[in-house]
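dumping this here so i dont lose it
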């Protein structure tokens, strides 16, 4: 697992690289962190890096937004408003975890054991009074390696 501190500009730069790789390999990306911790900012940058030309917004009320990227469909889900894992199936969860699209899921902790075993996990924490984010990233199962964070770091932190 990599743990690194990024300011918003670095988060966006890394997000573009991450999005290009995720889209190429149809990766499921689970995002964890408090409100305002950078999850949507990362997804916006990732979608840009994946070739999405539309404005990417948070799907807090619609729960899932779909976009067309350079390598295929991209789903952006926000589970903040779901009440239980049973609600996931109202979102067509099987399609989201099928591997046929690149998927970014905010508030992934609400999916619990329903998350696919092959995924990237990104954990966000606000630091320096909101001036930076600490991001922890790990690849699980057969998901490809996550693009290196180190080149974008403000301050490297140990694991």
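and the seq i came up w/
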């Amino acid at each position: 697992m990599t743990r690194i501190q990024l300011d918003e500009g670095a988060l966006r730069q890394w997000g573009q690289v991450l999005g290009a790789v995720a889209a190429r390999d149809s990766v499921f990306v689970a995002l964890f962190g408090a409100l305002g911790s950078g999850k949507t900012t990362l997804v916006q940058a990732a979608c840009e890096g994946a070739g999405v030309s539309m404005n990417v917004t948070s799907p807090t009320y619609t729960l899932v937004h779909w976009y067309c990227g350079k390598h295929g469909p991209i789903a952006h889900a926000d589970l903040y408003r779901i009440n239980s894992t049973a609600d996931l199936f109202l979102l067509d969860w099987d399609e989201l975890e099928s591997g046929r699209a690149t998927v970014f899921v905010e508030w992934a902790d609400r999916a619990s054991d329903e998350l696919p075993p092959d995924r990237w996990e990104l954990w966000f924490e606000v630091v320096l009074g909101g001036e930076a984010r600490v991001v922890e990233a790990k690849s699980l199962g057969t998901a490809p390696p996550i693009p290196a964070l180190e080149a974008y770091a403000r301050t490297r932190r140990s694991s």
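DSSP finds three helices and eight strands in the chain.
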